[in-house]
């Protein structure tokens, strides 16, 4: 090597040294409240379930959520409220909607009524409109069937304060017990007519309603009595447009269902097809699941994202109704998943939905630790692991208490085994192994660990498994058995 070349070789060596962390990984004990996630959204105290009213406005991502501030078990539902500029740091705001004489405030959505079709604002200052379900507890207890109806509220100060519409409910119930979780979006039909479409979960099916002003709603159609999984009640739907890999317009209908999920309890299924003039037509009769782990439910998408983001962004409730109310956290219950970007991909002619970690998650990364040994420490309880995979692989995470979580792919099945992952035994179904079919090749993974969860994204989210974990002490070690290469470990810090 001549002098010049050796100088460049040395320079490249220095650059590589600067990009990776050459120190041995040393585990730093967490300082915060036990099981409290460091970078997942949690309520400061009290009970939380579904994300609600996800809407973006003027640089702020709004996250409303099912909230009962007075207890860590489910109760009279409010909409809690937080905002973020970066999807990573959340500022807690005061409660947006509280129960009133019409009932508790159940799940729903929020939109920017840009053209002021509702008349709640002005063209210069268009209103945010929230569309939610009223749940009349007395009605339910008296044995009535029509105790759920849809109401609306609006804000003309960027979501800081909300006024309920005096004419609520805007959509009364016609005697169907489960009639809830309106997701509203503006949709232009093939004949160019633009309407508000409400996608509503009605017991064991979806109903679509349309409106020009968010106040008067007209029934459009019904979908699902003969399609999909029916092991439980349908809840929290979402209707989303996508472009397929071959450039075609497709519509995806997300439908959460409890119970009857692939891992017991709650889970989210989805349908792929077309939507026009108030009617959804599925392409096929396949049952598809958004996340094969046990702990991602009631996820919905953000509305009004800036066009240049060109993405569909969602977040889910990281729990399962099977045991959500008995998980061993102390002052609060439940976290949201990390935000995820949805897109379509194709496997042997079948379209499926991919959920990738939102791009912003990379902003949490410290310098990577490059790990070549079969065993390594983790730097902290908040880490991201990335690696290349061979189609069959196996590795485990463990802690000082001898607990272990085992992750593998064998014979076309991805398995996350948390049966040995906790000393606590709060529910008979929690300590279990969960498997997901993956007929195509696993090539790489990203894993997000936080104080009480693991989210596994194979091939950037072609297969996703989200699981809660309640170990006695934090996961501090990784051990590779086979098929995991180029492992990188990132300490995630806010
Ligand atoms: C889903 C759900 C919704 C309902 C809300 C009540 O988790 O059951 O259907 O609106 O929770 O908190």
Descriptive overview:
The protein is mainly β and 494 residues long. The chain folds into two domains: 46-357, Glycosyl hydrolase domain, family 43 (Tachylectin-2, Chain A, 5 Propeller); 365-491, Exo-inulinase, domain 1 (Jelly Rolls). It is 4% helix and 47% strand. It has two helices and 32 strands. The protein has helices at residues 3-19, 137-141; strands at 46-57, 60-68, 78-84, 91-97, 104-112, 128-135, 148-155, 163-164, 180-188, 194-202, 205-211, 218-223, 233-243, 249-258, 267-276, 279-282, 288-289, 297-301, 312-317, 332-333, 340-347, 350-357, 369-371, 375-377, 383-398, 404-410, 413-417, 433-437, 444-450, 453-458, 463-468, 477-491. Strands 23, 24, 25, 26, 27, 28, 29, 30, 31 and 32 form a ten-stranded antiparallel sheet that branches. The protein has a five-stranded mixed sheet with strand order 4-3-2-1-20, with no helix packed on it. Strands 13, 14, 15, 16 and 17 form a five-stranded antiparallel sheet that branches. Strand 15 (267-276) and strand 16 (279-282) form a beta hairpin. The chain is globular. It starts with a helix and ends with a strand. The model has no long low-confidence stretch (mean pLDDT 95). The chain binds beta-D-fructofuranose. Beta-D-fructofuranose (FRU) is lined by residues 49-50, 66, 77, 106-107, 133, 180-181, 235-236, 298.
